[in-house]
Amino acid sequence: PANLYAHIELQARAMSSSNSNSGATQILTDNHMHNFWYIYFDMSMVIKEYERAVIFRLGRIVSKRAKGPGLIFILPCTDIFTRVDLRTVSCNIPPQEVTTVQRASSKHVGLYRKEDGNILSTSSLQSLLSILDNATDKWGIKVARVEIKDVRIPMEMQRSMAAEAEATREARAKVRSTSEGEMNASKALKQASTVLIEAPAALQLRYLQTLTTLATEKNSTIVFPLPMTLLQGFCNHKRKTNSN
User: Fold this and answer.
1) Disulfide check for 127: which of 123, 149, 187, 234 has CB 3.0–4.6 Å away?
2) What are the C-alpha distances in Å from 25 to residues 3, 11, 18, 30?
């Protein structure tokens, strides 16, 4: 029995020693796995579909093209990356008043750097937008849309614009009334010509009315041709007299 107890004690010590060794190995393995996953997640980044990543390694760009979308890897100690959003983003910037050549104050949303304000006063609004497009192209930025939120016009310019609009409306009304009057007059002349063609005596009556109007204007001598029809009447009367 003493030997049996000694044998059992030796087996128990061996089992405890093996269990302690396996436990230490398990702990070491767990630590390695933990460090692996920590380094893996620290080196990997997920870039969304509408994003791109620009990676700088020791201050220099790693690639000429941006990374993404998808899973990318970086070196945590030497790499710094920046996410770039490709979506159209609206941002509010404190307004900077600029007076154009039309003397209209406008507010724009965008990036600007003011160097000489006197140059802006000699340009129109369209030329300013064109200059803005040319300035942003070299930075890889495309201006999708520019909205004018507020335009303030001086009072004297408002009065001049109102006077110009009123003159334009009056000119249009005058042209319309003149055209309508000419149309009505042409219709009346057409009707009168139709009546004169159908009744030749009406032409003689109109001739006599014109003579009456001319006689009542001024005390002056008026020379007018004698109608051939009147001479023809005298000739016919003379022929009848001679025949008798």
Assistant:
1) 123
2) 33, 21, 11, 9
Query: Do both 181 and 193 map to the same domain?
Result: yes
Residue 187 located in a structural domain: yes
Q: Which amino acid is at 7?
A: H
Residue found by looking up tokens 């710094």 in the block? 80
Q: What tokens were used for 115?
A: 């160097």
- The partner residues of 79 in beta bridges, in order of sequence, read 57
Q: Which domain holds residue 168?
A: 155-198
Residue 3 resides in a domain: no
As a whole number of Å, the end-to-end CA separation of the chain is 196
Nearest to 225 by CA among 206, 207, 212: 207
141 conformational bin, left if phi > 0, alpha if psi -120 to 50, beta if neither = beta
Q: What is the pLDDT along the chain (244 residues), one digit of tens a residue?
A: 445 445 556 565 655 555 555 555 666 666 666 665 656 566 788 888 888 888 888 888 887 788 888 888 888 888 888 888 887 766 666 655 656 665 555 565 555 444 455 566 677 767 777 777 777 777 666 666 667 677 777 788 888 888 888 888 888 888 888 878 788 878 887 777 777 777 766 666 777 777 777 767 666 666 666 665 655 655 665 676 666 5
Which of 182, 198, 214 is the last residue in one of the domains? 198
Helical H segments across 44-124, by residue range: 117-120
Residue at a domain's end among 60, 85, 110: 85
Q: Among 143, 156, 72, 74, which Cα is nearest to 110's?
A: 143
- Answering whether pTM is above 0.85, one says no
Phi/psi of residue 25, nearest 5 degrees: -65, -40
- 243 in the same domain as 230: yes
Chain centroid to CA 7: how far? 96
